[in-house]
Amino acid sequence: MGRRPARCYRQIKGKPYPKSRYCRGVPDPKIRIYDVGMKRKGVDEFPYCVHLVSWEKENVSSEALEAARIACNKYMVKSAGKDAFHLRIRVHPFHVLRINKMLSCAGADRLQTGMRGAFGKALGTCARVAIGQVLLSVRCKDAHGHHAQEALRRAKFKFPGRQKIIVSRKWGFTKFNRAEYTKLRQEKRIVPDGVNAKFLSCHGPLANRQPGSAFLSAGGAFGGNRGLRPIPPEKGIFPLDHLHQCDTEKKGYLDCLKSSGHKSEQCRHLSKTYLECRMAKNLMAKQDMSELGFSGVTELDSIVEKKKDESL
Q1: Where in the chain is the domain with CATH 3.90.1170.10?
Q2: Dist CA 154 CA 156 (whole Å)
Q3: Could you state one GO cellular component term attached to this entry (predicted)?
Q4: What gap in Å lies between CA 29 and CA 20, rounded to an integer?
Q5: What is the largest CA-CA distance in the chain?
Q6: Tens-digit pLDDT profile for residues 100-157
Q7: Which long-range contacts (CB under 8 A, 24 or more apart) does 243-251 make?
Q8: CB neighbours (10 Å) of residue 246?
Q9: Rounded distance, CA 27 to CA 277, Å?
Q10: Which fold has domain 6-167?
Q11: Tens digits of per-residue pLDDT, 3-60?
Q12: In sequence order, which residues have a C-beta less than 8 Å from that of residue 146 and are 6 or more positions away?
């Protein structure tokens, strides 16, 4: 028995029915590759971007997505070259389709139960698509923009319903307009992040703002979940670098820790949050701080005694 035509499942009815521990035995979707072409090219390489946008609320089968991917990729390789584009499938077939199989042979009425227990078995998968949702996206150079539009026009014939080809105003797959991206790139307020880009904002006290260090750096690259972190003037990005510069020579304690309640002039860029992580554990355990870049042994008792002496 062959696969039921996709026109039988085109309309969206009911709730999403994904694969789960209750819905087992689902066939694998036909489409297995969602990024085609030069997917590792940087964000600056391909400024031009064009989208194939759905103009109907419907189900799109995984077979249709695979056929559209093949058609678009084949034309782009032939016309622009295999190193001149990046194609991305923007929808994933997570919705499971069911079929209540009926027998059509002689004596079938004796073997089957008709509509009794009609909850069918998994037949395939499809993607639930809304109006205005992007199906396919192609980024390339400006010289190959007309080839990308023609490739998406050919991919349109693989889908049911109506679609529109829309040329994006953004730079590649980013969220920035082309003029805005160029301006921010010159100001070094955008950092490339693979096929995308990260924006470096200007949060922080104005007293700490100096030329060349007014913006933020991507804190995710330096560990922790604090997100973006301000760069102190003439200091390192990671707070441990800043602590290392405040380290006393041979006294066994840190000057920057003696004023953790209020920020001193020497450590005005250091907040108490940085003392509650790896450093605090090492201090409580009276371990050697040399692994963090400090000289000598820093113990919590000596810091407490020093604070008591200062209070007196």
Answers
A1: 6-167
A2: 5
A3: ribosome
A4: 15
A5: 103
A6: 988 777 667 666 778 888 899 999 999 999 999 999 999 999 999 999 999 999 999 9
A7: 243/270, 243/274, 243/279, 243/292, 243/293, 243/294, 244/292, 244/293, 244/294, 246/270, 247/294, 247/295, 249/295, 250/295, 250/296, 251/296
A8: 16
A9: 47
A10: Aldehyde Oxidoreductase; domain 3 (3.90.1170)
A11: 899 999 999 999 999 999 999 999 999 999 999 999 999 999 999 999 999 999 999 9
A12: none
pTM: 0.66
Task: Give the single-character DSSP code of 28.
Answer: P
Chain position carrying tokens 């920057």: 256
Going across the sheet that includes 48-54, the strands are 35-37, 85-89, 134-140, 48-54, 163-167
Residues 138 and 156: beta-carbon distance below 8 Å = no
Take residue 252 and report the two structure tokens written for it.
């066994």
* Tokens representing residue 37 in the block: 């072409």
Pair of tokens at residue 28? 């694998």
- Percent composition of the chain: helix, strand, coil (DSSP 3-state, to 5): 30, 20, 50
Structure tokens of 231? 């760069």
Residue showing tokens 């029915």: 17
